[in-house]
Amino acid sequence: MSITAVNHRAARDGIRLGASLADARAALPELVSRPAEPIRDQRSLIRLARWLGRYGPARNRDGIDGVWIDITGVAHLFGGEEQLLADLIQRLSSFGITPHAGLAGTLGAAHALARFSATGRVPAIAPPNSEKTALAALPIAGLRLEPDTVVLLKRLGLRRIGQLYDVPRAALEQRFHAGYAAKSKARDRARPSFAGKQDTAGQVGAGQVGAVLTRLDQMLGLKAEPRRPLDTLPALSVRRTWAEPLISAEALDGEIAGLVEELCDALKAQALGVRQLCLTLYRADGTIGSVQAGFCSATCEWRHMMRLLREKLSTLDAGFGIDMTVLDGHGAERTAPLQTSLGTQAGLVHNGAAVLLIDRLSNRLGANSIYGLAAQASHIPERAQSRQTAGAPIHKNAAQQARPGAPRPAFLLQLPEPIRVMAEVPEGIPKHFIWRRVRHLVVKGEGPERIEPEWWRGLGVTQPNIAATRDYYHLENESGARFWVFRAGLYQSTEAQGPPRWFVHGLFG
Fold this sequence. Notes:
Layout: H1 8-12, H2 21-27, H3 38-51, E1 58-62, E2 66-70, H4 81-94, E3 102-103, H5 107-116, E4 124-125, H6 131-135, H7 147-155, H8 169-189, H9 201-220, E5 236-246, H10 249-269, E6 272-283, E7 288-299, H11 302-313, E8 322-330, E9 333-334, H12 345-365, E10 371-375, E11 385-389, H13 396-401, E12 411-423, E13 430-435, E14 438-451, E15 470-477, E16 482-488, E17 501-507
Parallel strand pairs: 3-4
Antiparallel strand pairs: 1-2, 5-8, 6-7, 6-8, 6-9, 10-11, 12-13, 12-17, 13-14, 14-15, 15-16, 16-17
Helix pairs in contact: 5-9, 8-9, 10-11
């Protein structure tokens, strides 16, 4: 068992990371130890990263003990970069965390400054375009390399980052090759040799040199470094801070209304709308609360946004007070101008009311609880439409291709149900039929409407009778109920599928 973390007092008494627990207890009998909980530590670090969203929307974990934040476009809200770092350190210190902060133009440079330059409450800041000078004196471990590579660099006499600046790549590869070969020979002398051994010193040396140079280029901004934020970055974001935390619901509602209005103005200035809002409240005790509101179509209407957000604000607790609120807009889309004259006003009002209703139901019941039917390019009734989330875009080409010429029932059975039919002529309109043990006398009938099967779906498969040619009829019984029935198969057909069968497929309103 080894030491994975120490506090300041233990470090002052000589306890070091990686040391054996038995050796540490022998050197310091009064040492108090606790089992390590790496999974719980990771969860706590993710919660901290979410709370640090107050300093920038793009942030995530950095290793097992750090968090990176992209403060681009946010620092001026705190009065500058120095004031932002001072606020961050002060708040983390009030939570019982001793932060080591570094600020630079690249993630690698900030990582090295935070871990190998900053001490205590004094952050290390590299001025713009001066990372090379600020990092020169830092140890080689600041390059985020594998431990074996760091040890090998130190054996080669490269202990500071600045020593790598002027070393040519070819010379560095030769030194790595020589260092790795010497290490391999020393290891081989300590163990028996075996047949078929292959020398990989050159390959390993080249690979390690590539890793070193890649990390160095990323640190100096010469090569891009991919970063994956914790959450999806918003298209637009607005925020407000207060010197005194807000506690009352009335004050919070007014401030949120101002935030929504500010976001709407920014969206209208760019002719944009958003499909989702995320409101995050940062409490004074270091916790956060958030609510989301989704829209079936991109919108920038203040009243609609506020109506949906107010329905969810009651689920949030102000706690010890809220000192910052951030409103993010996701899924930005270009909004087309709407024509409000020449007789289109009534249609716009009707469509707008439907959109408002869908949004309110989706936010109350969940987006997956509200769905609609979209047309598909198929003449088979059960395949002519698909179930999709309400408000999802509809492909107009598929809808036009699948548009039937005859009317369709308002209610379609999930599966056609067989019936017994009596007709005056084999392929004529039924005289009466029996469905679910009830006899229906047909007083009116219309048809047939022939729908051929989609033959390409049954290639290599024995088709059931229900997949044969269908003749649909619109029937009305003596009580006024209207049915949509079809005959599967043709009487003159020579296919070995048995005689034609009749089914009920839908009911008209």
